[in-house]
Amino acid sequence: MKTKRPIYLPMVYIFLLLFVFATPIASLAIATEQLPADIQTDSLKTKDTLVLTEHPFAATDKFGPHELPATHPFVIENRTRDYARDFPGYWILFSVLLLGLANYLFPLKFRETFLAAWDKRYFSSLEREGGFLNHWVSFLLFLNYLFNLSLLLYQSFGHLNLLNRLPEQNPAALLVYGFAFFTGFYLLKYLIIFFAAWVFNTGGPTEAYFRNILVINKFTGIVLLPVLAIHYYNPATWILYIGWAITALMALYKLFKASAIGLGMHGFSAYHLILYLCTVEIAPVLFFIKAGINYLKI
């Protein structure tokens, strides 16, 4: 039986493409409106270009004679384009390809994973079928989540003017370092969680907690991508704030889900739950924020 593919992601891709092509056209329209009135009336406006017909004039004819010496010699420079600055755009394109590949090859699993963060029916379906870790769609969506976290960190550093304080300012290197950092962070967190489960003999609840966190992270990566893509082409402050707000809300939602799982355990007190969440979820984030502030001397 042929499954019906969801249409919400292709609509997102079409929106991103339209936004990319609409940005230079809108910029040209704004630049045209800002031209002086005398130039606009003497201009030949065609469909794609704006040709100015005003004749150049000598400065002495309009402003009178002057004896201002040249302060800088006229030098023709060979300017080359810095392709490293385009790497965040390639980063976004690769994330779009990851989501498109996951949706095209595994449409049903993709839909279940996207909705499992909020709907318990889809979460139970993934739990029965074992689609959390042992499926390609899980790997692709979590990879997309790591890509978008590193891009959010890079764009935040640029917004706060912190890139010039880093020893390495190449965008490609910074994005790769960010990706490696978040990969190592979640790997270490995974090992700590299951080591604590082995010590305190809480394997079942720990598995449920880990599966919930994993699904929410994948959902966060899907939602963050269009926001970060729009911010790349239109770097407004409020768009970046939306990205951080989404990340913060998803972090609070993860704490809520973890609390519900912990309180549902027999014999597990609220004190131990708070201690566990502070140790595993809150303390590492505060530690890295403090370490970053000290390193960058903010």
Explained architecture:
With 298 residues, the protein is mainly α. The chain has one domain. It is built from 11 helices and 2 strands. It has a two-stranded antiparallel sheet. Strand 1 (43-45) and strand 2 (50-52) form a beta hairpin. Helix 7 crosses helix 9 and helix 9 packs antiparallel against helix 10 (237-263). The longest helix has 31 residues, at 203-233. Residues 24-32 and 37-50 have low confidence and may be disordered.
Tertiary shape: elongated
Instruction: Tell me the distance between the termini.
Output: 59 Å
Helix-and-strand structural type: mainly alpha
| CA radius of gyration | 26 Å
Strand order of the largest sheet: 1-2
State mean pLDDT (0 to 100 scale). 76
* Strand segment tally: 2
Topology, element by element:
Layout: H1 8-33, H2 37-41, E1 43-45, E2 50-52, H3 59-63, H4 87-105, H5 107-116, H6 120-129, H7 136-159, H8 171-200, H9 203-233, H10 237-263, H11 270-296
Antiparallel strand pairs: 1-2
Helix pairs in contact: 1-9, 4-5, 4-7, 4-9, 5-6, 5-9, 7-8, 7-9, 7-10, 8-9, 9-10, 10-11
